[in-house]
Amino acid sequence: MAAPAPEQTPRLLILGGTAEGRALAVAAGARFGAALTVISALAGRTRAPVLPAGAVRIGGFGGAAGLASYLRDERIGLLIDATHPFATQISAQAREAAAQAGAERLALVRPPWRKGAGDRWIEVETVEDAAAAIPAEAKRVFLTVGVRSLTPFAGRRDCWFLVRLVDAPDAPLPLARHRLICARGPFTEADERALFAEHGVDCLVTRASGGDATVAKLAAARALGLPVVMVRRPPPQPGARAASVEDALAWIKERLG
To answer: For a surface tag, which of 14, 169, 209, 225 has the fewest beta carbons within 10 Å of its beta carbon?
Structure first.
């Protein structure tokens, strides 16, 4: 009789592309070593992404069904969604795929920014609401909502926009008056205040992404007394959530036994 096959090393897929996803890949490798195989998946939308430690897969899966097939084919039992808080489509697909494939899923959700003393936030639900909420007196607006969310601002021809993206887009921006700058955080408050001064920024429009890499723009706006139009986060997918890499490591440890 043939000997039974040895049990496979447990496998973890991290849906990443974020600082939290990269930190988790490093920490999981250090904490569990050969007891866990860690694979990070990036969507591939950034031309020169900062790659996490370990095995990396770049590109889409073809929806929930494609991701479920990948989980089954690669015998992945643990899935951690560490994508951007506004990446609602992939998060929904991750929940559905994990259910289809019988994988355990955790969402690693970075803590949101909190409004503090001196902040002049105008909180809205959507980018369409944000375009309408720019104060009438604001004429030079710093716009940091991502390339896919710029179209609603095309109608604000009373404003000039400073747009910051990680990569230059393939097509012209849909804004009548603007300047595009490409940069990747983290940024310092001094950097942001200098940028505001250089371009005469009198209003900031952003999404409630959270995290440390881009929080300095909020500190700069606060120090300068500028209004901030803040798009609230969409509701998270149902299921288990962690607020830190350490919490995610504890979740993994429980499942490794």
So the answer is: 225
Distance CA 115, CA 120 (A): 9
- CB neighbours of residue 228 within 10 Å: 20
R_g of the chain, CA atoms, integer Å: 21
- DSSP E strand boundaries for 70-187: 78-81, 104-108, 120-124, 140-144, 160-165, 178-182
Report residue 1's pLDDT band, with 50, 70 and 90 as the boundaries: very low
In the predicted model, what is the mean pLDDT of the chain? 94
Q: Which residues pair with 176 in a beta bridge?
A: none
Q: Which pTM was predicted?
A: 0.90
Question: Strand 140-144 relative to strand 120-124: parallel, antiparallel, unpaired?
Answer: unpaired
Amino acid in position 153: F
> Rounded to the nearest 5°, which phi and psi values hold at 13?
-110, 125
Angle among Cα 234, 238, 241 to the nearest 5 degrees reads 90
Cα dist from 85 to 108, 207, 208, 212, whole Å: 9, 10, 8, 14
Cα–Cα dist 201/237, whole Å: 35
Between CA 79 and CA 101 the distance in angstroms is 11
DSSP 110: P
For the chain, the distance separating the N- and C-terminal CA atoms, rounded to the nearest angstrom, is 30
CB atoms within 10 A of CB 179: 13
